[in-house]
Design brief:
- By secondary structure, the protein is α/β, with parallel strands linked by helices.
- The protein has 9 helices and 9 strands.
- The protein has a 7-stranded parallel sheet, covered by helices on one side.
- Helix 3 (about 70-85) links the parallel strand 2 and strand 3 (about 95-100).
- Helix 2 runs parallel beside helix 3.
- The chain is globular, with a radius of gyration of 18 Å.
């Protein structure tokens, strides 16, 4: 089996219509400014040069923000950059992440034109109250509609969910997993909540309104969710945000994390 490499290109906070209570994409991605097409090309070239296995499968992934909410001209600039590497045979596919309410037929047709293969939706929860509490700005009905369209157009569907959101409990998170399974994603990411500097959640944490899960609680619920998805042959591609200079132990000087339960990955 060929090795698979993901070439990450971060477009922090682009396309997001509102600020989720937990979100500071510039901190999460480690980037303080929005990326240009020239910078995207530079990032891609850097990763391609570092991949020694030339026969490996390679995928360019636009992470951060809500890609399909970006200005169409900007979207196409970035997609065109990635598509050129597909045409040259240097890259096999493109992946994007976005919001469920930023998916429609016209958007999917545009993504098809540029050979996007995988679309990941930030779901977070199947509980509409929890989604409202997190200031997501969409409902779970939006998730269902978007998931159906994505699969109908032939894309690989991925879902991202969170555990430990304000006023969410283990029952909510198990029910979210079960609801997502019905939508038939090929892959899932599970993110325990981190309290990041500059977010509304930081204020709630400092005011004593919100308390993050303990490490033990986070491990136990993630372990249960991994088992649920694995039993349905859904690939778990990450548990927790990847450690970076900014996303690390809150005791470190550069850390943007105020409090955490768990941020390691499997």
């Amino acid at each position: 089996m060929k090795k698979e490499y993901v070439i990450p290109v971060f477009v922090p906070h682009l396309g997001c219509p509102n600020d989720c209570i937990f979100c500071n994409q510039k901190s999460i991605s480690g980037q303080k400014k929005n990326i240009t097409k020239e910078e995207a090309k530079k990032e891609i070239e850097y990763f391609l040069e570092s991949i020694k296995d030339k026969d490996a499968k390679k995928e360019i992934a636009f992470f951060g923000g809500s890609f399909t909410g970006i200005d169409i001209e900007r979207q196409e600039e970035l997609l065109q950059v990635a598509y050129e590497y597909i045409e040259k045979g240097q890259v096999d596919s493109i992946r994007i992440s976005t919001r469920p309410d930023y998916i429609n037929k016209d958007i999917l047709k545009r993504l098809k034109k540029y050979k996007v293969k995988t679309i990941e939706l930030g779901v977070q929860s199947a509980n509409d109250y929890v989604l409202g509490r997190a200031n997501r700005g969409h409902t779970f009905e939006d998730v269902k509609k978007a998931s159906k369209l994505i699969r109908w157009y032939g894309f690989n569907l991925g879902h991202q969910m969170m555990v430990g959101l304000p006023e969410s409990n283990r029952s909510d998170e198990i029910n979210t997993a079960k609801a997502l399974i019905k939508l038939k994603p090929k892959m899932i990411r599970i993110y325990p909540v981190l309290v990041i500097k500059g977010t509304r959640l930081e204020k709630e944490y400092n005011d004593g309104i919100y308390e993050p899960l303990s490490v033990v609680q986070a491990v136990e619920i993630c372990k249960q969710l991994v088992r649920i998805f694995s039993n349905k042959n859904i690939e778990i591609i990450r548990v927790g945000l990847q450690n970076t200079d900014e996303i690390c132990n809150p005791e470190e000087n550069k850390s943007e994390v105020v409090a955490r339960s768990i941020s390691s990955s499997i």
